[in-house]
Specification:
mainly beta; 6-stranded mixed sheet
Length: 1527
Amino acid sequence: SSFAPREPAGLTGSNAFNASEQILLRWLTKHRRLVFGADAPRVRNFGADLRDASVFYAAVEAHWPSLRKTHGARIERRSFSNDAKESFVSAAAAESNARVVLDALASLRHPYADPEASARVVLTDASPSDRVLFALFLYQTLPTLTPRATISFNCRLGTVTKRDVALTNPSDVSVAYRARLVGPESATKQFVLEQTLVKLRPKQEAALRVLCSPTVAKRTEEEPSSVTEPERKGAERARDDADAVSVPNPEGSVPTARCFLVLSSARESFASGAAATTLVFALEASVDADAPVQSETFAARCYEMTVATVSVPNPFPADCEFAVTCVNLRRDDPRAAEAFAAIDNGDKENALVRRRRANATATARKDTDLGLPDRGSKARGGVTAVVAETRARDGSIRKTLDADLVSSNLPRVRRGKYPGAFGAERVAARVRGGGTVTVEVAFLPFAMGAHVAHLVFEDVDNGRFVVELLGKADLPPPAAKIKAELEVRPQTFDVAVDHQNPPFERARRLFLEKHPGRADRAEAMKARMAGDAWPSSIEYVALSNSSFVDVDETVCVAKNATWSGDFENNANASASEMDRPDPPTPMQLGLNVRDAGTYPAIVILGSIHDVRVVELEFAAGLRDDRAILEFSCVARKSATQEIPLVNGGATSMVVKAQLTGADANAFAGVGRDIVVAKGRRDVFPLTFKPSRPGSFEATLMLRTAGSGSLAGVPDAGESVAYTLKGFAAPPEAESVIVIHAVARETCVKSFAVPNVFGRANKPAAYKVECDGLDFVGGEPTCAAPKNGDAFYEMSLAPRRSGIFRGALHFTTAGGHALWYALEVRVARAKPEALVSTVTDATGASSITKRGEDDDGIRTGETRGVEGKTHNQTLSLRAPVRVATTARLTLTNPLNAPAVFRARCEGHGLLGAPTLTLPAKGSGSYEVTYSPLVAGASRGSVSFTHDVLGEFWYPATLVAEEAEITHVTPATAALGGAPALVKLRLQNPTDETVEVFLECDETGPDANAAFPVGRGSQSATSQKVFSIVSPSTKTLTLAPFEKGKITVAFNPSTLDLTRHATVIATSAAAGTWRWRVSGVGVAPADLNPPTLLFVTLGQSGSHAVTFTNPHEHAVSITASLEEEGVSVGRSAGVANGDVSSDGLTGEKPVSKFELLQTKSASRGVVVAARGSHLFPFRFKPSSMRRSKATLVVTSKARGSTPSLTWRFPVLGEAEAPMSGREHVIFGKARRRAEMGMAVSLKGLEVVPSDLVCDSQGSGVPFSFEIAAPQGEREHLKKALCITPLQRHVSDARQALKFHVALRPSREMSCVVDLLVSAMSGGRWRFPIRVDAEEPEVDGVIRVKAHVGRPSVSAFTLPNPDVRETKFTAFFTPESPAAFTVSPETGAMAAGEPMDPRNALVTTAASPGSLGTTAARGRFEVTGEAVGDGPGAELRIGYAPTEYGTDLVGRLRVVTESNAWTFEVVGTTPDYVKPSAAARVDTKIGRETELLLEKAKRRNKELGNIVLKNTKPENYTSRRLLSKSRGGE
């Protein structure tokens, strides 16, 4: 078993150490075990136990735990075992521990030795006595680091809290402290020291002010400087021993930050000062999270909802993700006590008025001006308790309901049964630090008075804060509006009150449909169960605001009662309705009506369940028994209305009618008395029949005789009067008269006109007028006999054809009228005859009109005409798309110039719109016939004049097919590339047309054989012509646009001419035809070469495609002939027998190999029009070009001879990539240049490859740029590579290029520079092109007032010469006050720049030498003038609050360009208005004289107050009497 030495019980048990040394050893042991654990052995001596300095470090860390993070990792500690044996550290580790201890003391501003002193000397190799001194130093110094007190800061977010730390210097020497904050960075940044140096004179006191600005509201769990349990116990002990200055935290406060205030001695501040003891204070910041950072006020009527947007700034400097909740507070909640008291006492009434909000769902409360008349009677006491009197500016007294007074006289509603009034739509919000979040808040009160809620924003990392919502609910909207008519006398009025409260029920539905609180299940259940939980009988306290309406103090409302708002309907209720069970006792009102007039009143009912308002309006003595009957119809028509007659008496009732008034003749009754039998019903028909348009008024009086009564007449034998009002609109047309006529001919039409007075036995004299037709004539008057019709005759002489409409009015002197609608359908006159038709030398026809017509138009004469033929039709004939003209000669018989409106009708018939002829002169009109579609049709040419009328000429139009266009025959080699035939056409119309293409080889001579060389061959049916462009065989042409058609000829036979017809058809533009032909010739010597690139040292394969051009199968053989290799060698290649002895130099080494089987080498059969692939392999051995030829030979078959085709093959070797990547970097729209040197490794140069010129000698080369597909178009303008030499002499010579980059937007890609030597070989050099976002292109400043948005426009030019689509937007970090429009659109094409004076180098050829050429390229890179057309952008700026200027970034991006603008939004500077002073501040001369006089008198009198205190001069009256000479 292990043995543990017993701990000494006292301080005198040791014979080696005295009591003081024992205290030091025990003090060190205690802190060693606090830091390293309870199993650490005690410190027994000042020698070996303290040699490694870990015990000293434990003592320092125990008093300042933050050293664990900064210095603890550097300490090497001993390990302890169960047998109490400990392992010792090395000498180097002990010295390192000693250095850590000294550094820790220096960081605490308590250095023990010179910083330059060796730790080994000071501690590691120190003697035990020196270690005793060091331990004593720690024993006296470290306790000063224990906090003397805890200073608490009770803060609110957004405010600064101040605390003063009182310091006293009791000594006789001056001391100075240097203050600093120690603790976590998150805590120290919330505290600020107003000064860091405090100087205290002897016996002097000073205060150090500490400011706290909390930035978080979350409870902190960490102690300052990572407090551990030992330190926490020490701090608690220090708080118990010291005089704490902390203030208790209020309820709801959350400690958010803890740190230390350390006051260290600043001995250097006083020349003769003493070193002060270090003072430490604990600082603790507590934030009252329930204290609102701002308040928002709402006002609404009870049971109505208002919605407002609340803007809340983020009080935390960090970005937050808030969870938003709305908490409605009760009156007994301590958090809302102050707010409820403020609203109840009216302290925030002005704020409520100023910040009242409303939305479309509810109307803000308005004080109801009751306008109560003062009738001299005294009001009841209950009335004055709820009505507030205010005096207006004009001195009148206005009486309004006071909601606070009403609430104080009504029972308080139990709010716990109903849902909370406030609710917030938003449940989460992400806000930047210092940003603003908007929340839609709804306010729907179910009780009058004050309402308080907290809008809580809580973030996981930063805590929470509260926005206070204050609401005041006014009287609810009326539950019922009752109007009644009364007699002028005191009386009672009963009102049945419904158990349900309609505004309350609407509020319940509104809450469940739109209020944000409906998301809370508990609140929603309260809304659903609110009205259902009411008792069946509710007792209300009743209040009235009118002195003329009295109401009982309490009213009982049961469930089966209903509102009775129609007093008259209740009075006229049927017997069946009267028999239903009696309702509960209604609310009885006492009406004190003494005079006639209108009596408004409001009755308010309140209970613990709800509040309701009843609006009343009583009219006394204002009833008018005269009813009003209104009629409306058109003149000369009638309208009838029946008046019911009810006889409820025991005898028959006789009704007499009397019509009176100026317009009584417009109304008519039955013309006799009406007898209504007892107990029966009847009607009195009243007819309104106006004879003219206008307004009519009359009076109808119905009188009764007998015991019956009229509806509304209370007693028999009385009368009832009706006011009759009638309105007659203008009469309708009697009928529509349709007349058929012929142009330039006269016709007559007669019809009957009725008498407008009808059976009035009165004649009618009409005045006749015609509207809209100038060719209608007739008598101006017409008379209709009594009770008869008149016959009116009118004549019509239309000058031109068409359909014309008008009206014929017949009006009497008294305003009676009738009218007819006229519709005249005029046909064309007979066509004019033509005298002759001849064609002149120009191909035009001259046509002369024959004879003289009825209007006196004389015909002209045509000279040079031999023989005249009389034709009735103008005949025109022309081929399609060929114009022919004809002239018509006309003579003007008038004495003034005549302008004719000309119109040409018919396909392809054109002419001028007008023709002007001189007075008594003649002229010709030219008609052009240019048809587009073949066929025969008819047309006409018409001339119209306002005086001479219309005449026309028919035309027969014949369009002939256009002649077919013959195209030059094409020639193509058999089996080679096809011959292309270009055909052109133009759209002859002014509209876009679609042309459909067709190639026809089925004509009579399409397959005819025309022997060219060796005789004819058999005709075939194989098609050899095809349309290759456009591939869809549909061509769309814009107006008057030219189009192109490409036809390919691919012959199948030798020396045989083939034909085809190409047809282009359009429904609008007609048809085009071309005749194409072609002949096949023997195969050409050379075909397009096949190019193959293979990396040097590797092999690659490719294939040559052979297509059989014949219309029958052929047998072919193939061989490969390589340049520089003998024929025999080539045959061996063809058979696949390749030897390797060519490496000895005796014979060239073959680089090509034809890949085919032995059976294929003997011959291959290819089907008609079929294809066959001949694969081959290429393996380069040097960087030189290799050439070969694939020879294909066909066997003769019948008349087809043996043919040979030769296909060149070029093999290029490509050098392996070096692995190096060149990089060019720049910014968009900024020029970047660099030099680039490459070497063509493996280049072989022979004397025959060298070329000599003025630039030197060497092997010429070419280069090209291979770019990614997406950046190819952009790099064509942005990247320019220019060689600085034309030749390269050998592989070791560096080939230099100048690379220039000017991108129009940011980009990143890799392009390949491909360099090819003329002797053969290709080298690939990758170049990385990186362009970052450009600098800001400009600053745009916009100005706007808060609440008054403004729009600024600017034009951005387009650097491209083509229209480009763009997108404009503000970056996400830009303020929301900025907008841009349009966000997308098209940027107009820029104006091209003239490049004639600019030196341009293309990117695909060497071009000119030097960097001058490369720089010149970018002078026209944009290809457009800088201030050319572009796009207009409009920037909107709508600031919502005052403050600093807002800055945003506007981005405009196109396919190849991008712009960035900095937009600065400011508010206009306030200009102080300047106006002349209206107050004269100078004293007048008379006033100055009076003041001087008063000063002299006061000087004579002296100090009146002093003299009045004397016994002899007790009052000022005696003194004044002395001054006036009274004594």
